[in-house]
Design a protein that fits this description.
Residues 303-368 have a biased composition (Acidic residues). The protein is of the alpha+beta class. The protein contains 54 helices and 32 strands. Helix content is 50%, strand content 13%. The strands form nine sheets. A seven-stranded antiparallel beta sheet has the order 1-14-10-17-8-6-4.
């Protein structure tokens, strides 16, 4: 790949880059003395400044001058005779005094005659070179001003003629002064001296000596006052000229002399910029001529010679850049010495200036970005404040307007206005000192301010808004006072002197200090200047977007086309000088800059510029050596399709193929094809569309040769659209003899084999879809398609998201090709890829193929299809045989459920397909397949076998029985199941799997003996298993209560299950009895085991039938009941009675239907009520006990209950029952039950009798352990015997309420209990604090109140019962709302 520096002289027309080299090398000028510049600007206000405001001079008679002509008089020779003077008087008119509409004739003010200059035709000014005379004597800058003397009028004076002090007025645009040319008149004159005054300074010019044969000339600025003394004798004739600045672009300033003086001083202070500007103009001309000459001489020379000449040219241009260095060497040395002196005295000099002026060159400059110092740019901070939206040159006021006007008249300077947005972020942290008695904040307060400046708007001196991204060095490049524009990004102000060295902590501090951050934006307005010769370069580097926008608009305006071409040439020259920087600018999308430049070249028919641009984008941009360890190269190239199209359009409309072929070749190198494949493919297509066959063939062959050398990694980066685009290009090119090349197809096949499998498949399918339509008659397409299909059949097709449609479409495609070998290879690869896939959730590929109607139709309609079916089955079974099946070593086979889902699915689908093919009369080798199936089933565990069997039955259970293949497969599975059960007798099987297997066998129903054997083996495993009784309970509970199982089982199967349950209950009770006294036994687990074992017994009793003799009785629980304490027995009785559980709401059983169970439950209930259970109850448990008693309706139980409650009074637990009796629902139930009512009366009477001896406890208001250290007065009150106090130390009601809430909240943790009432407002707010009763007193008064209510209740119930006979005792018959619900145990409530 050629580098940019090696491509300088590839063609004679490529001198655009070379022409700019001299221009760009002068981009950085000598430093500017900012103090001197500021003084020059400030000189506008210096009234003591010496100004050359006027001059007068006597001119010798130059010889024969052409006479001047006057309307109606003809020619007037010079010198003017008295006769001609008199003639002139006849065509003259009185001279007016004053301005505008205030003109009048006043001989005391002005006594003269005048002739309008429009009536005079004179060449005297040109013959005498008056303009040059003025330029010389007034010291006007010739490079700035083009001055012309234009005749305004003629004045004639006779004896007594004069005029008083006046100011010139009504001048034409650009006028800045007056020139008076006194012509010689016969006889001359005496008197008439000219007086000129400016800023209290006067000059007097004599003009009477030799006035008959000499000329007198005088000139002065327009704001000078001038007068003429009276003529004492003779006649005087003067021509009055206006001095006009012809090339002035702005209105002449009012105080033009001072303005002009300031301009000259500014130019002197900016001499380094101005000399650089002149040098660049010379170097540009020299470089342009040298480049043109060298380009002509280099035709036909070798590349090495071109490089040598290029280096010589660089040296010549460097010599040209410094052509004045020898002459100015001494001046430079003096300047350097002066600069050193200035640096030593800089601080003192700046202190002598205005107080606002600050030193800009301190040591902190090193912190600024070095890139900001590379541009010759200075700025002034404006004094006035402006609205940003209306800010511009026309809006400037006062001194700001004068400042801008000065620089606008400096033709070698460029001035811009800019708005600086200053963002100030202030971070303040303050501490409140002592936070509380336990924490002292040691954080130090600070106030940190961070300020950043950014230019948000630019405007040039034409009022055009510019988008520039120039970074200004706010310190080094400022001239004059900064006027509050900060030049430091960070400053810090501490609150205390002791914290001067403290650095602000960026963390969160202690979490107590107050930290606030505020942000504000401040607008500053500045005037920026730089050398005019740098303007275009700055626009290119920092405002290229705006520059391109301007050129794109101007290219359509006829009068601006040439200027646009010139700008385009300069722009490309800048790109050529530093391409890396130009193409790395921010704000451009990929290829945007190249595209816009190419389009401009095409629309402007800019041939040389277009070729130069092609040379740049085809070259490598070398990175600077100092930035990288090894020199790296980057390139622009063809980044987008739009760029490719623009290149082709440039070749076709502007340059032609011959001149740009070499550049195109470099753009499509192998390295660039890897990075820019899509645009390069589009480049070839665009060449074809424009009938540029050379270009299309070059690009196509380059891509093809590159593809052969692509490695695997490079090929993986190619996407499907890119490949299809290239294939379409090949097909199109192969059909044209001018672009055909059959070597491209093998290259494509080589690349195709390295691609992602997904892309391979999708590309083949896409081409297959177009084979019968778009490319139907293309012979090249057929050859290429066959090559790709052959490559695909041998490829590894393992990739994720292999969609079903892709698989089916590929198989159908290969069926249509009718190549058995390719079809076999493809099918094997597809099945192998699916089995080896890591995606365990993907659907079986085999199942996807066999479930496709399209594939099955093709398979069953041809000889190729018969072999395809055998291939499918053999390949699938072979792949399954090669797979490693994971087996679980855990005691719980639940882990096996997710071990091999892909294997199960694939095996099941294969078996179903075999059964389906047998139905469709497809002959299978049963013996060979049976052996394979048996070997595969032997690898599966119990769960996997059940899943396989379930999947097979999804076909049709009835139809399966009629299929010999299906019957054989099912028999193999059953044998494998029994084998697994016997082999893993000590391993607990998944409960769901067992139920699922049983459901399958019941559904088949063809062999009851197998079901018996299966159940028998399951029961044996459960009896011998070491897993928990709870797990066994869950299995048998499902067998007993799920209708799908129990109702469909025959009697023999039911007996097997019931016998196993009897054995399980017996063993369980024995284990419980053995674990009751063990210290490691959990009480909750023990209670749960007891309850579940009893429930299992009840369920078994409910399933007894026919002659099935009862093997166990309730006596089996007698050893267990005898070992239970009161708490355990209470838990069992209540749990058996409860019926709230929603999960077993459908399992309600009526124990009263089973006398054996009911008698046993009644017995343990009676036993409970004779024990000490009252101390175990709380309100909830007490309520459950009463509900249980009401349900039992047993007289003995009620009597025992009444005796226990009466004896327990006045305990807290007995109080619970008192409160329950006061509930309305309980009252109604008690009233309707004779046993309950009798027990209620007995309890009330006993409690009433014992309550007579209760004594009221003494109240002690002292809360001696109360702790409230923050409020000593309140703490003393709490510990005293006083019951209440009033606390008033508040500033408002809100504080009082907060205190009240806090006091009540803190009471429990601080050992006191109070009630607080808030009242008052403002400073009169107060809290009334009242101590609460202690717990003992509180319980006593509550019990006393409840006893009163209980006595009233007894009286009321007695009256109600006497009025209505009591209901009969509840019988043992069925009552739905009184049933016992057998539910799994909930967490036992704590009994207190």
């Amino acid at each position: 790949m050629a580098k940019f520096k090696d491509l300088k002289h590839l063609h004679e027309s490529h001198s655009v880059c070379d022409e700019f080299r001299g221009l760009d090398n002068s981009g950085i000028c000598k430093s500017v003395d900012k103090k001197r510049l500021y003084n020059a600007v400030s000189s506008l206000e210096d009234k003591a400044l010496e100004v050359n405001f006027a001059f007068g001079k006597k001119l010798l008679f130059p010889g024969a001058l052409k006479p001047f002509k006057v309307d109606k008089l003809g020619k007037i020779p010079i010198p003017v005779s008295l006769k001609d003077f008199q003639r002139l008087k006849k065509v003259s008119s009185p001279s007016y005094y004053g301005k505008g509409y205030n003109k009048f004739v006043d001989s005391s003010k002005r006594l003269a005659l005048e002739v309008d200059g429009k009536k005079i035709d004179s060449t005297t000014a040109e013959e005498m070179s008056l303009s040059s005379l003025v330029m010389n004597h007034l010291e006007l800058p010739s490079e700035l001003m083009n001055v012309q003397a234009k005749l305004d009028h003629m004045i004639l004076y006779e004896s007594g003629g004069h005029y008083q002090h006046t100011l010139d007025s009504e001048k034409e645009y650009g006028s800045f002064g007056t020139l008076i040319l006194q012509l010689p008149v016969e006889g001359g004159h005496v008197g008439g001296r000219l007086k000129v005054a400016y800023r209290e300074k006067d000059q007097v010019f004599e003009n009477h000596k030799d006035s008959d044969r000499s000329f007198y000339v005088a000139s002065f600025y327009g704001n000078s006052q001038h007068a003429m003394e009276p003529i004492t004798r003779g006649a005087k004739l003067t021509l009055i000229f206006n001095l006009v600045w012809e090339n002035a672009e702005n209105i002449i300033p009012q105080d033009f002399p001072m303005f002009l003086t300031a301009v000259k001083k500014i130019q002197e202070s900016l001499s380094s910029w101005i000399s650089a500007d002149r040098s660049i103009k010379n170097n540009t001309l020299i470089s342009s001529n040298a480049a043109h000459t060298k380009s002509s001489l280099l035709k036909g020379e070798d590349k090495d010679e071109n490089q040598d000449d290029d280096e010589d040219q660089d040296n010549d241009q460097e010599d040209d850049d410094g052509d004045n260095e020898d002459d100015d060497e001494e001046d430079q040395e003096e300047d350097e010495e002066d600069e050193e002196d200035d640096e030593e005295d800089q601080e003192d000099d700046y202190e002598d200036q205005d107080d606002d002026y600050e030193d800009q060159d301190d040591g902190d400059d090193k912190e600024q970005d070095e890139d900001k110092n590379r541009e010759d740019l200075l700025y002034f901070v404006l004094e006035e404040k402006y609205e940003e939206n209306f800010f511009g040159f026309s809006a400037l006021r006062g001194k700001d307007r004068d400042l801008a006007q000065i620089f606008q008249y400096c033709v070698l300077l460029e001035s811009h206005l800019a708005v600086v947005t200053q963002t100030v972020v202030t971070t303040e942290r303050s501490t409140r000192g002592v936070v509380n008695s336990h924490h002292w904040c040691e954080c130090q307060p600070y106030n940190a301010v961070k300020s950043t400046n950014k230019i948000s708007r630019w405007e040039d001196n034409n009022g055009i808004s510019r988008k520039l991204s120039i970074d200004i060095n706010w310190k080094k490049q400022c001239v004059g006072p900064q006027r509050n524009l900060p030049t430091s990004e960070y400053k810090k102000t501490d609150f205390e002197a002791g914290f001067r060295d403290f650095e602000p902590d960026d963390g969160e501090g202690c979490g107590v200090c107050e930290k606030t951050t505020s942000e504000k934006c401040i607008k500053h307005f500045i005037l920026v200047i730089w050398p005019k010769h740098q303007t275009f370069r700055l626009y290119c580097h920092y405002g290229l977007h705006s520059l391109l926008n301007t050129m794109e608009v101007n290219k359509s305006i006829i009068r601006l086309i040439e200027k646009t071409k010139s700008d385009l040439k300069k722009t490309i020259s800048f790109c050529c000088s530093d391409p890396r920087k130009m193409w790395s600018q921010k704000g451009f999308k990929d290829g945007e800059l190249t595209l816009r430049l190419l389009r401009l070249c095409v629309e402007l028919l800019a041939r040389e510029e277009g070729l130069s641009l092609l040379k740049i984008i085809s070259s490598d941009f070398c990175l600077p050596q100092e930035r990288v360890s090894n020199t790296q190269e980057i390139f622009e190239g063809i980044k987008t399709e739009q760029v490719a199209e623009a290149i082709v359009e440039l070749e076709c409309r502007v340059t032609g193929w011959k001149d740009c072929a070499e550049f195109i070749k470099q753009m499509i190198s192998p390295a660039r094809i890897v990075e820019q494949l899509v645009p390069i493919i589009k480049l070839a297509q665009f060449f074809l569309n424009m009938d540029c066959f050379e270009g299309a063939k070059l690009v196509g062959d380059s891509i093809s040769s590159s593809f052969i050398n692509f490695d695997k990694q490079e090929a993986l980066n190619i996407k499907q659209p890119e490949l299809l685009s290239y294939i379409e290009l090949i097909i199109t090119m192969e059909e044209n003899a001018k672009t055909a090349n059959r070597k491209r197809i093998p290259s494509l096949a080589s690349l195709f084999s390295k691609l992602e499998p997904s892309i391979q498949c999708y590309v083949v399918l896409e081409l297959d879809a177009q084979a019968t339509s778009r490319f139907k008659n293309f012979e090249s397409f057929k050859i290429m398609f066959q090559a790709l299909c052959k490559a695909l059949s041998a490829c590894d097709l393992r990739f994720k998201s292999f969609k079903k449609k892709v698989i089916i479409d590929l198989i159908c495609c290969f069926f249509r090709i009718e190549n058995a070998e390719w079809l076999r290879s493809l099918t094997s690869n597809i099945l192998h890829a699916q089995v080896a896939s890591e995606d365990k959730n993907c659907h079986s590929t085999f199942e996807q193929i066999t479930s496709s109607p399209v594939v099955m139709k093709l398979a069953q309609s041809s000889d190729l299809g018969v072999s395809f079916i055998d291939l499918l089955i053999d390949s699938q079974l072979a792949q399954l045989t090669s797979m490693n099946i994971q087996s679980s070593s855990r005691q719980d086979d639940r882990a096996q459920q997710t071990s091999t889902p892909a294997y199960n699915s694939s095996f099941s689908s294969c078996l179903r397909f075999m059964i389906q093919m047998e139905k469709n009369s497809h002959k299978l080798d049963a013996q060979r397949l049976s052996l394979r199936i048996s070997s595969l089933l032997a690898k599966l565990d119990f769960h996997q076998l059940i899943c396989i069997l379930t999947d097979i039955l999804t076909i049709n259970p009835t139809g399966v029985k009629r299929s010999s293949c299906a019957v054989t497969i099912i028999r193999h599975i059953q044998d494998a199941l029994i084998s697994r059960l016997k082999k893993n007798a000590t391993v607990m099987l998944n409960r769901k799997n067992i139920l699922g297997a049983l459901d399958v066998f019941i559904t088949l129903g063809d062999d009851a003996s197998f079901t018996h054997n299966f159940l028998k083996q399951i029961c044996e495993n459960e009896e011998a298993g070491s897993w928990s009784h709870r797990m066994k309970y869950n299995l048998f509970l499902d067998l007993l209560i799920v209708p799908n199982f129990w109702k469909k089982l025959d009697d023999r199967s039911k007996v097997i299950i019931l016998k196993c349950c009897d054995k399980l209950i017996q063993d369980w009770v024995v284990d419980i009895c053995g674990s009751i006294n063990e210290p490691t036994t959990s009480i909750e687990a023990l209670d749960e085991s007891i309850l579940i074992s009893v429930r299992l017994f009840i369920f078994v009793e409910s399933k007894r039938f026919g002659t099935n003799a009862q093997k166990i009785t309730t006596q089996v629980f007698q050893p267990l009941i005898s070992k239970l304490n009161g708490s355990q027995l209470l838990e069992l009785v209540l749990k058996l009675h409860q019926s709230e559980s929603s999960s077993f709401a459908t399992l309600k059983l009526d124990i009263k239907k089973f006398p054996n169970c009911m008698d046993w439950y009644l017995g343990i209930s009676r036993l409970l009520f004779t024990m000490d259970y009252i101390s175990l109850v709380n309100m909830e448990v007490a309520t459950k006990i009463l509900h249980c008693l009401l349900w039992l309706e047993d007289e003995q139980a009620w009597q025992s209950f009444a005796l226990s409650v009466g004896n327990a009074f006045p305990s807290v637990q007995s109080h619970f029952f008192v409160r329950i009796f006061l509930i309305n629902d309980i009252q109604t139930a008690v009233k309707e039950s004779s046993h309950a009512f009798a027990a209620f009366l007995r309890i009330v009477d006993k409690i009433t009798e014992k309550s007579a001896f209760l004594e009221e406890p003494a109240v002690d208001w002292r809360q001696s352990k109360a702790c409230l250290p923050d409020y000593a007065e309140v703490e003393a009150f709490l510990r005293s015997s006083v019951q209440a106090m009033t606390y008033k130390k508040f500033t408002g009601i809100a504080e009082a309420r907060h205190f009240a809430q806090r006091l009540e909240y803190m009471g429990k943790s601080n050992n006191f209990s109070v009630s607080v009432t808030v009242s008052g407002s403002g400073k009169q707010s107060r809290c009334i604090i009242t101590k609460n009763y202690d717990e003992k007193a509180k319980n006593f008064f509550s019990l006393k109140a409840d006893l009163k209510e209980l006595v009233k209740l007894r009286q009321r119930l007695v009256k109600d019962v006497e009025a209505k006979p009591l209901a009969r005792p509840i019988s043992s018959g069925p009552k739905t709302d009184k049933e016992v619900c057998i539910v799994p145990p909930n967490k036992r409530p704590k009994l207190t």
